[in-house]
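Async update (no meeting this week)

Hi team, since we skipped the sync, here's where things stand on the single-chain job. The sequence we agreed to prioritize is pasted below, unchanged from the tracker. I ran it this morning and attached the output directly underneath so nobody has to dig for it. Comments welcome in thread, and please keep replies under the output.
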Amino acid sequence: QVQLVESGGGLVQAGGSLKLSCAASGRTFTFSNYAMGWYRQAPGKQRELVAQTSTSGSTYYTDSVKGRFTISRDNAKNTVYLQMNSLKPEDTAVYYCNGRLLGTSDSWGQGTQVTVSS
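Output:
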Protein backbone atom coordinates (compact mmCIF):
# COMPACT_ATOMS: atom_id res chain seq x y z
CA GLN A 1 0.00 0.00 0.00
CA VAL A 2 1.13 3.53 -0.73
CA GLN A 3 1.43 6.26 1.91
CA LEU A 4 -0.05 9.66 1.08
CA VAL A 5 0.77 12.97 2.73
CA GLU A 6 -1.19 16.13 1.92
CA SER A 7 -0.01 19.70 2.34
CA GLY A 8 -1.02 23.18 1.31
CA GLY A 9 -4.24 23.72 3.21
CA GLY A 10 -4.97 26.87 5.16
CA LEU A 11 -7.19 29.87 5.64
CA VAL A 12 -8.02 32.06 2.66
CA GLN A 13 -10.55 34.74 1.86
CA ALA A 14 -13.33 34.11 -0.61
CA GLY A 15 -12.06 34.59 -4.14
CA GLY A 16 -8.58 33.51 -3.19
CA SER A 17 -6.51 30.52 -4.25
CA LEU A 18 -4.75 27.56 -2.66
CA LYS A 19 -2.73 24.71 -4.09
CA LEU A 20 -2.85 21.36 -2.38
CA SER A 21 -0.14 18.76 -2.83
CA CYS A 22 -0.17 15.05 -2.09
CA ALA A 23 3.12 13.17 -2.02
CA ALA A 24 3.08 9.40 -2.36
CA SER A 25 5.66 7.01 -1.00
CA GLY A 26 6.05 3.32 -0.35
CA ARG A 27 8.42 0.40 -0.46
CA THR A 28 7.43 -0.86 -3.88
CA PHE A 29 4.90 1.00 -5.95
CA THR A 30 4.54 2.64 -9.33
CA PHE A 31 2.76 5.95 -8.93
CA SER A 32 1.70 6.10 -12.56
CA ASN A 33 -0.39 2.95 -12.06
CA TYR A 34 -2.58 4.73 -9.50
CA ALA A 35 -5.69 6.74 -10.20
CA MET A 36 -5.42 9.72 -7.87
CA GLY A 37 -8.19 11.81 -6.46
CA TRP A 38 -9.10 14.55 -4.04
CA TYR A 39 -12.09 14.17 -1.74
CA ARG A 40 -13.44 16.60 0.82
CA GLN A 41 -15.61 16.36 3.90
CA ALA A 42 -17.34 19.32 5.47
CA PRO A 43 -18.70 19.19 9.03
CA GLY A 44 -21.87 17.15 9.18
CA LYS A 45 -21.60 16.07 5.55
CA GLN A 46 -20.49 12.96 3.75
CA ARG A 47 -17.12 12.74 2.10
CA GLU A 48 -17.41 13.63 -1.58
CA LEU A 49 -15.19 13.22 -4.61
CA VAL A 50 -13.93 16.60 -5.81
CA ALA A 51 -11.56 15.69 -8.65
CA GLN A 52 -9.79 12.66 -10.00
CA THR A 53 -7.07 11.92 -12.52
CA SER A 54 -6.73 8.52 -14.12
CA THR A 55 -3.59 6.63 -15.05
CA SER A 56 -4.00 7.93 -18.60
CA GLY A 57 -4.31 11.52 -17.41
CA SER A 58 -8.02 11.98 -17.99
CA THR A 59 -9.76 14.05 -15.35
CA TYR A 60 -13.09 14.28 -13.59
CA TYR A 61 -14.53 17.17 -11.57
CA THR A 62 -17.64 17.42 -9.53
CA ASP A 63 -19.96 20.08 -10.93
CA SER A 64 -19.48 22.55 -8.10
CA VAL A 65 -15.74 22.98 -8.80
CA LYS A 66 -15.66 22.84 -12.60
CA GLY A 67 -13.84 25.84 -14.02
CA ARG A 68 -12.31 26.69 -10.62
CA PHE A 69 -10.24 23.66 -9.60
CA THR A 70 -7.57 21.84 -11.58
CA ILE A 71 -6.11 18.46 -10.72
CA SER A 72 -2.72 17.48 -12.07
CA ARG A 73 -0.07 14.88 -11.42
CA ASP A 74 3.69 14.66 -11.73
CA ASN A 75 4.59 10.99 -12.00
CA ALA A 76 8.31 11.76 -11.76
CA LYS A 77 7.72 13.33 -8.34
CA ASN A 78 5.03 10.87 -7.20
CA THR A 79 2.82 13.86 -6.48
CA VAL A 80 -0.72 14.95 -7.29
CA TYR A 81 -1.90 18.54 -7.01
CA LEU A 82 -5.17 20.38 -6.68
CA GLN A 83 -5.11 24.03 -7.75
CA MET A 84 -8.11 25.77 -6.27
CA ASN A 85 -9.09 29.20 -7.58
CA SER A 86 -12.05 31.49 -6.89
CA LEU A 87 -12.60 29.76 -3.59
CA LYS A 88 -15.97 30.03 -1.92
CA PRO A 89 -16.99 29.58 1.73
CA GLU A 90 -18.78 26.38 0.72
CA ASP A 91 -15.41 24.92 -0.29
CA THR A 92 -14.47 24.83 3.39
CA ALA A 93 -13.70 21.24 4.33
CA VAL A 94 -11.00 18.75 5.14
CA TYR A 95 -9.47 17.66 1.85
CA TYR A 96 -8.20 14.10 1.51
CA CYS A 97 -5.92 12.60 -1.09
CA ASN A 98 -6.88 9.18 -2.43
CA GLY A 99 -4.88 6.63 -4.37
CA ARG A 100 -6.57 3.78 -6.18
CA LEU A 101 -4.87 0.75 -7.71
CA LEU A 102 -7.05 -1.87 -9.40
CA GLY A 103 -7.45 -4.96 -7.26
CA THR A 104 -6.30 -3.36 -4.03
CA SER A 105 -7.82 -1.28 -1.27
CA ASP A 106 -7.73 2.50 -1.52
CA SER A 107 -5.01 4.52 0.17
CA TRP A 108 -5.87 7.75 2.00
CA GLY A 109 -3.94 10.68 3.34
CA GLN A 110 -4.53 12.19 6.76
CA GLY A 111 -6.33 15.23 5.36
CA THR A 112 -5.61 18.93 5.21
CA GLN A 113 -7.98 21.66 6.36
CA VAL A 114 -9.14 24.31 3.90
CA THR A 115 -11.09 27.22 5.36
CA VAL A 116 -12.55 29.94 3.16
CA SER A 117 -13.77 33.05 4.94
CA SER A 118 -16.49 35.27 3.53
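Quick observations from my side:
The chain has a mean pLDDT of 96.
The radius of gyration is 14 Å.
Reply here if anything looks off.
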